[in-house]
Structure formats: structure tokens, C-alpha cells
Tetratricopeptide repeat protein
Amino acid sequence: MPIKAPNVKSKRLIATAFMAVLAASVAGCGSTSKLTTGSISRSDNQPLETMSANELHSATARLGESYARNPNDKRVATNYAAALQMDGDADQSLAVMRKLAIAYPKDRDVLAAYGKALAANGQFEQALDAVRRAQTPEYPDWRLVSAEAAILDQMGHRNEARQDYRKALELKPNEPSILSNLGMSYVLEGDLRTAETYMRSAAQQPSADSRVRQNLALVVGLQGRFDEAEKIASQELSQEQAQANIAYLRQMLAQQNAWSQLKDQDKDKAKAATN
């Protein structure tokens, strides 16, 4: 269902809608959670996911300069890899995290972020290995359990993934990133109504961040409620960015007839549930 897009804006939209299931899990592991999704410099505390394309390019360039000076700095390297990923350069993001994983082979946060980069490049088996190596069975980390679930989801192992999401929720009840990831699991399956239920629950949590609310906007938009989706998105993005994202979503669904396909899948699942 994901499509390849020709520019940074559309790449980021599709990544948010379908492929960035990992964003709220792997990137949030341990101490890196404030790094990959929070401030990128002392003077700029704007989250990466709310930046315009030009802002993201500038942030990535600044982080690249810092990384060149000290490539083994975990904070800088993890931030740089996250920015590269958001900026559409998954290969370089993976190269940065691979080098860091070599420098810190037993660091849970590094291994978790490395797993995210591997998954973003479609290397799911290796990603699972990295995340599982980061986990400590006697003291399980809910972020890693959710991250493993997200990887399994992208591999098509829905039942196993959802079991892990629920394990993560047992460890961290009502955690918005887990609820959002579980919602994305249903998006990937085409069950948009169930997805929206989890997304709304996630967005209502006090600790919900921008990614969670943007995911809700996209799920609403995928159901054709574009005005409502734009209103939600405008709370996180500039009005111009929100309008551009929704306009692209309209175009994507119209061009590929994806909306009709998703709607039919949703109807079929509803019928099956009542039989």
C-alpha cells in the first residue's frame, strides 16, 4: 500500500502514514527519546517531525557538522541519524547508526536506534536481532517490546505484533506511543475504524506528542474526512504544512484509487465481524 514519492514532502507524509510505525517506539527507547524527537540544538527546540522541508534540511546540515567533529557522541549521532531519516536519506542514517553500534555494542539505546534504522531500510530480520539484543528479559523495557511489535507488523506478522503491543501496554498502561503503534497496525491491515479508535485514545493521553496526533490526522484523512484531518494536523503543523499534507493525501488516494480500496476492505471487515 505505501508508494514511492518524488519529493521530501511526500516521502515524509507516506513515511508518517505507513512506514514510521517505529518512530514512537524504537526512537523513544531509553535516554534517546528526548534526543531523536526533541530539540536539535540549544537554540531550536522544535520537534523534527513538525519542521518544514527547508527547516529540516538546515537542521540536518547543522547536525552533520556536529557529527563530523565527534562521530562517537551518542547524542549527536542519534540526532543526526533521526534527522537524516526524516529528510529521506535512510541509507546514510543507517550508516551513522551502524558505526555507532560498533562503537557501543552493548548499549541498549544505541542498539534500539540501530534497529529502527535497519527496519527503515527493510532489513527486518537484522532489526529484530538488534532490538532483541537490547532487551533485558528480567527487566523488560516497554519501548523495546513496542519496537519489536512494530517491526513484526512491517513483516506482516500481525498476530504476533499485536501480542507484543499488548505486552507493552501491560508494562506501560495507556502509553500513547504504544496505542498509536497498535492503531498503525490496523492501518497497515486496512481496518481504519479500529485504527482510529486506538489513535484517538492515544491522542487523548496527557503525554501524547506531535507524532501521535499527526498519525490520528492521517488516519482520519485516509477515511476521506479531509477537513477534520486538516484541523487536527493544524494543531501540530503550520497551516500551510497541514494544507499541503492533506492536499497530497487527497492526490495520493485519488491517483491510486487507494481510498476506494481501503473503504472496501473496511466494509468487508465490518461485515465479517457481524456474521
Summary: The two ends are 27 Å apart (CA to CA). The longest helix spans residues 239-256.
